[in-house]
From TrEMBL:
Descriptive protein name: Ferredoxin
Keywords from the named record: Electron transport, Iron, Iron-sulfur, Metal-binding, Transport
Taxonomy, superkingdom: Bacteria
InterPro entries in the record: 3Fe4S_ferredoxin (IPR001080)
Function: Ferredoxins are iron-sulfur proteins that transfer electrons in a wide variety of metabolic reactions.
Single Gene Ontology MF annotation: iron-sulfur cluster binding
One Pfam family hit: Fer4_13
Keyword Iron part of the UniProt annotation: yes
Source organism (scientific name): Iamia majanohamensis
Amino acid sequence: MPRIRVDHDECVSSGACVLEEPDLFAYQDGPEALAVALPAAQALPRERMEELAELCPVSAIVVEDDGDPA
Ligand code: SF4
């Protein structure tokens, strides 16, 4: 199963994902406005996840397979 997540070492809080897809991404609570992928995003086909990853200007949105440490 593919999984989509935001790499918080890379996210620069540009907001592109949150603005473009507010049902799929949100800022997490806390002092830093780091984005997180919402549960609805996990139900999408891998192809759609790959498209979402393209939204991020710094490639912080990553798609990976469960059990794949990369
Ligand atoms: S588009 Fe990328 S850098 Fe901007 S908030 Fe989303 S994950 Fe972070």
